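Bug report (template v2)

What were you trying to do?
Predict the complex of my protein with flavin-adenine dinucleotide.

What happened?
Run completed; filing so the output is reviewed.

Input:
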Amino acid sequence: SNIPKIVILGAGYGGILTALKLQKQLNYNEADVTLVNKHDYHYITTHLHMPAAGTDNPENARVNISKLIDEFKIDFVKSTVVQIRTQDKKVILEDGTLSYDYLVIGLGGEPETFGIPGLAEHAMSIRSINSVRLIREHIEYQFARYKREPHRTDYLTFVVGGAGFTGIEFVGELADRIPQLCRAFDVDRSLVKLYNIEAAPSALPGFDPELVQYGMDVLTKKGVIFRIGTAIKECSPDGVIVGDGEEIRSKTVIWTGGIRGSRLIEEAGFETMRGRVKVDDYLRAPSHENIYIIGDNSLMFNEEGRPYPPTAQIAMQQGVTCAHNLVAAIRSQPLKTFAFSNKGTVASLGKGEGIGVAFGKKYLGRKAAWLKKLIDLRYLFIIGGIPLVLRKGKFF
Ligand code: FAD
């Protein structure tokens, strides 16, 4: 048939929004849409720091894709993409091949380790349901091991590399969880060390300094030991070497210090910067009018020429524009340029605490924590309506 084929790779924030908008906007038989994702569920990445620390169940951070999309309008394929072949307009999956007329790439990011020796091999990262289950179990296991080998206090030392939003949110949760673990395993709290190590001269680089200071004060009171302006030089199974050669012995290193695009994009021959493609104003890859790249895989610059940080917020907005432009392209109508509208940023600092900027105002403490919940509920509403809000929403 000559119905155009649209293939969307990745059902993350960008891919899901693209699919949801397409299913609404396309007329019957106007296009065949296929959504491909590694798992049959979408994960709410912005929640993952909680199940990783063990303060929430991983179930609350995932939603079955079949509950989100209309399978009469969109074909969902659960598979892993292994190669993108732009010359043939084909995508190779682990168990098959798909051809496309229009492609949307939203495969999300991968940890960037900046070539720091040992980090890729020995550190864990917060990126999927599977990875957070591993982190949670690993942390609990260290407490159990310590009880059998009480001279090994290094089992009770936890290192988080990176004090960006993910690192800060994770140490906030873990600092809340540690007292519970100490009670459950009869461990003296003073033996447990939680380090947050950041190479930049400040935590949350670029964020409002007053809020950063507040956040660090809250977390320090909860027992977090900050090492700011201190680089991790090396990571091994026995811990990390930092700054001038100081060794922090630990069996648990969690790296949140960098994110890059997908290797599949580099391998496909696109020009990339750290695995991200600089897209045009319509979100298309250079010299590929039929390929849209969104979310953590795309690179866009603001008016000052600085790259937008990869966030769920921008990925969602790109998904909306991408769907609009696909429909317009199919109908030979003019495309829309993408303009990011920054709604603000809020970071949680564990239970009942947070910091953020929204609606042009600063928020801290309990108000920021509420705001964070509101943003989460809004997202659930956007992708799944009231039923999803009621099933997965956390109101308290
Ligand atoms: P993703 O949401 O990462 O989705 C990519 C999808 O592609 C996934 O479903 C994955 O399984 C799938 N996939 C990957 N490779 C393959 C393959 N080879 N084959 C098939 N499928 C594949 N942003 C905010 O705006 N606010 C926040 O508060 C916030 N908090 C965060 C907290 C944490 C702990 C983390 C890790 C991130 C946070 N972010 C936040 C960033 C945000 O989650 C990302 O920017 C966003 O998820 C990017 O969306 P995406 O659509 O590009 O990719």
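What did the reviewer find?
Residues 10-15, 36-39, 45-46, 48-49, 80-81, 106-108, 126-127, 165-166, 169, 264, 295-297, 310-313, 315 surround flavin-adenine dinucleotide (CB under 6 Å). Residues 366-392 form the longest helix (27 residues).
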